[in-house]
Design brief:
The structure is a homodimer. The first copy, chain A, is α+β, with helices and mostly antiparallel strands. Chain A has eight helices and twelve strands.
Chain lengths: 316, 316
């Protein structure tokens, strides 16, 4: 019996930036993930029946009758990989927020998301390099040829260097992984600032010392970010958190969250985000380290490079 | 008379990473934009009537009766900035893909998107530093205190160093801006590879030389990316494009797009993305350089760091 009512993974499309064709001969290529995604949801069924639905239509089959045919060739080839490990059928719902004819790596994105969802359903674990090697098997089964650079971009995200011989994926511009946890309440910044002023009315030197300690954290954090040293950035988070506690802006809910998060091995550091006495704490750690800590308070966010943007031009 | 039927801008929320409180005293802070956005659409009206709609409700007023009151205090304060420049009313539709109570900079995001849409409606131009300084005016009018670091993150995106005295925004991890243009057709990678093999059947040395030229482009591109030298990366794009043409994978539609794009001053380089003989070209250039080149073929994408991702935990 599956342990969950549904399983859902999403993967981004991709754009090849440099190295096309030569990549097939073993040379490196540069590929990046883009902010258009495909989501694959798996709903377990009691029998061995399989239903696939997407914008391309609906298709019915069974675990015992898997034949790799369009338009679901990548999906069915992925299912075939796990044929012997699967004991139950399922409904796979595929949703894309971009058109498949644009050449933005939709086949790779759907392959990667299917493999992830099937691996989790079959309780096999979703290790990125494993998803990549099985994605390459699907790619070769379905289209015979292809570097798999788009698979790697869909799995790892960002801007990556990719080569097939030996298979190697290197992030070119690393960004830290952040995790946010909501403390359950909110206090306006102005009120927090007023609270601090009152508390430190007769202790101005102490207050200035705390501000300076926070400023040192920011300056050293900037250096850590430029060096992509996320472990160090985490230590700096912890140091600023000490200063936030001295300021008196850490309430019980924030403190409990911080105590819970900091115990996790894959977390480098955690602190209040914003003025305090409410809102969220922000943690820094390994990819995927956050979602299992406190599912109720976890807010899945990612850093985006896309700031203010005119929305008048729309995708297809 | 406004020149368009509607105007639409979106801006991301933000998370403060380091430097809270000290930032108000002039020290630097580190803040990042997150992948939850607020979109503001402005539909011009013939009279001086103003309608505001959002998840918070609907509010009716007039250009002649603007009073800054919740729940639309940031929006109305932004409109008041342009009171004298606006001759017509409008309907502002505000849509957020995240909850406003989480402390993820929703006030800053809505302020920034409103200012942008109003500036474009009033034909004043949407310069980022101008949007920031007017955002700070709104912030001070509405809440009296606040660093505006969240405004800067909403405008510039990414991970930034922010300080208020003197006002300065510095991107900490720059990513290149890419623009994609669809050529109108598609050819499967396997077919393109077969085509190349046939064309170079008796010219194997020549083919190897082209592959090596492409490989050199990829290697040099990796160095350019690590140095965040997007002008150089653009030149490398152009060099790989020459190799793609030698490979015979550039058709007329791709060539016409490339000729059109490369003439633009704000574009550093442009090439076919992927195996060629169809799909897209990818350009690299300044922010905002792409959308006016070829609106029909333009596909707005951004590089994302978010790869394969479990979707089972959902926001709120």
């Amino acid at each position: 019996m599956p342990s969950k009512a549904f399983y859902s993974y999403s993967a981004p499309g991709s754009v090849m930036l440099l190295g096309e064709h030569a990549v097939l001969k073993g040379y490196p290529a540069v590929v990046c993930a883009i902010n258009n995604r495909i989501t694959v949801e798996l709903i377990p069924q009691a029998d061995r029946h399989i239903t696939l639905t997407s914008a391309l239509g609906e298709f019915q089959t069974s675990l015992d009758k898997l034949v790799i045919n369009p338009p679901f060739q990548f999906v069915i080839a992925a299912i075939k990989l796990y044929e012997e490990k699967l004991t139950q059928g399922f409904h796979l719902k595929i949703q894309a927020d971009f058109a498949s004819h644009l050449g933005l790596g939709s086949s790779a994105a759907v392959t990667v998301a299917c493999i992830a969802v099937l691996r989790e359903f079959a309780n096999l674990g979703v290790l990125p390099m494993k998803v990549l090697s099985e994605g390459l098997t699907v790619l070769k089964t379905v289209q015979g040829v292809g570097s798999g650079a788009d698979l790697a971009a869909s799995i790892f995200g960002g801007l990556i260097r990719y080569q097939i011989d030996p298979l190697k994926v290197t992030p070119l511009i690393p960004l830290p992984y952040i995790g946010l946890f909501y403390s359950g309440s909110k206090m306006l910044t102005a009120a927090v600032i007023k609270h601090i002023e009152q508390q430190f009315r007769h202790r101005n030197t102490e207050l200035i010392n705390i501000y300076q300690a926070i400023a040192v954290c920011a300056e050293e954090g900037i250096v850590a970010i430029k060096e992509a040293n996320w472990q160090l950035l985490g230590q700096i988070f912890n140091r600023q958190q000490v200063a936030m506690e001295k300021l008196g802006v850490c309430n019980q809910a924030l403190q409990q969250l911080i105590n819970k998060i900091i115990q996790q091995k894959a977390i480098f550091g955690v602190k209040i985000s914003g003025s305090g006495l409410g809102d969220c704490v922000v943690a820094i750690g390994n990819q995927g380290a956050f979602s299992h800590i406190d599912e109720q308070n976890y807010i899945p966010v990612d850093i985006t490079t896309k700031g203010l943007k005119c929305e008048e031009t729309r995708l297809c």
